[in-house]
Design a protein that fits this description.
It contains 11 helices and 16 strands. It starts with a helix and ends in an 11-residue tail after the last strand. This is ABC transporter permease.
Length: 390
């Protein structure tokens, strides 16, 4: 009888071991205005998990299960879905979302459940700033990294800048960080313009910017911070800001948005990623595999999703499993990991991934229906003094 009981117990333990799995929730805006960003993020996440596990989609023999949930870009829904992922689906780690507003709603849920949320690709500084808690890590760049790199690319003595941004956390945090970053370059901001996220007619906003800038002397730039559709660059460029001596400038974006850049050859800015810029083994693999599978290059947010996937795997390996959140936090603080952008490092103080950015100049190239961001120089993580805001 004892032998039978021992055999049964052993069978149960073997079954439990065989069924053990690592559950990752990807909570992102699959539908809505940012669905193109979301699709890239998910493709990148899955490719990152694949790359970091050598194609097995297992860590130490435990299979990875990815649970997808659609926030529809609604903060309350994102908050509820994260609670559902942790509470009902037993996800040990969550990744997402796309929208900064949704991310801010989700942050307290990670703290309540005491589980890791890797924010990718939401950008607002406040995510790893005033609204941060110790369960939050971010692989995506933050507004300060965008701002400081663009200030390096665009600033200088005698330069005057106006800004146009969407009226929510992404836009306002981005302008605030850009304003602060410009102070050390000798440039100044003459006007800030905020418009609704779904704006398609920029006539009134552009007129206010032109009126604020037209009588100023020296070099003048309109710096646009934008996510999603609407094409503010193309539409404002069609209004001929050059008659007032104003040049349009912006950061990087997805390939579809770069079609507007083709109308602005020579435009400069700083970008998070363009597939032809980084030179490293991870990016080589991503570019080759993405062309092979999708007959297209990896895009802006594909690289970010892949970075998050790699971070998940490296953290779990280093922590010795996914079940102990405290062990994961210890493993991730200060952790360096290789991504399509090169080395990233989670800063211990706020868990923001420190990373390179790229100063670019737009070129029109044969065979490409968009303006190509060609590298001027890499801005290394050590060159950017990114504030700790929490």
């Amino acid at each position: 009888m004892k032998t039978l009981f021992a055999a049964s117990a052993a069978a149960i333990l073997l079954a439990q071991a065989a069924s053990a799995e690592i559950r990752i929730a990807h909570i992102y805006g699959k539908t809505g205005a940012l669905e193109a960003y979301a699709a890239q993020s998910h493709t990148g996440l899955m490719m990152g998990l694949e790359y970091a596990t050598g194609g097995t989609m297992e860590i130490d023999g435990e299979p990875i299960v990815v649970i997808e949930k659609d926030t529809q870009l609604k903060p309350d829904l994102g908050k509820a879905l994260l609670a559902e992922a942790y509470g009902d689906d037993d996800a040990q780690i969550a990744v997402g979302p796309v929208s900064s507003g949704v991310a801010l709603a989700m942050l307290p849920v990670a703290e309540e459940y005491e589980r890791i949320l890797i924010v990718e690709p939401a950008v607002a500084d406040s995510i790893t700033g005033e609204n941060w808690n110790r369960y939050i890590f971010r692989t995506g760049r933050n507004s300060s990294q965008d701002a400081i790199s663009n200030a390096v690319a665009l600033g200088g003595e005698g330069v005057t800048v106006a800004t146009l941004a969407q009226d929510y956390a992404f836009g306002r945090d981005g302008v605030a960080a850009f304003r602060e970053a410009l102070e050390g370059t000798g440039a100044s901001i003459a006007h800030e313009e905020y418009v609704p996220t779904d704006t398609t007619d920029f006539t009134a906003a552009a007129e206010r910017i032109f009126n604020a800038m037209k009588d100023l002397e020296g070099e003048k730039k309109l710096f646009i911070i934008w996510a999603g559709g609407g094409n503010p660059m193309g539409k404002i460029n069609a209004m001929d800001p050059s008659r007032f001596g104003i040049e349009i400038a912006t950061g990087g974006n997805i390939l579809a948005a770069l079609t507007a850049y083709k109308e602005l050859p020579g435009m400069e800015g700083a970008t998070y990623y363009y597939y032809e810029i980084p030179e490293n083994a991870v990016n080589d693999w991503l570019v080759e595999e993405h062309f092979k599978r999708f007959d297209s290059p990896p895009d802006f947010f594909t690289a970010g999703g892949m970075s998050a996937g790699i971070a998940v795997v490296e953290a779990i390996k280093k922590a010795g499993g996914a079940d102990d959140t405290e062990a994961l936090i210890t493993a991730m603080e200060g952790m360096e990991f290789e991504t399509p952008k090169g080395t990233m490092m989670f800063r211990p103080e706020d868990h923001q991934a420190m990373q390179s950015m790229y100063h670019f100049r737009t070129e029109v190239q044969e065979g490409k229906d968009y303006g190509v961001p060609v590298l001027v120089r890499e801005i290394g993580m050590d060159e950017m003094d990114i504030p700790i805001r929490n």
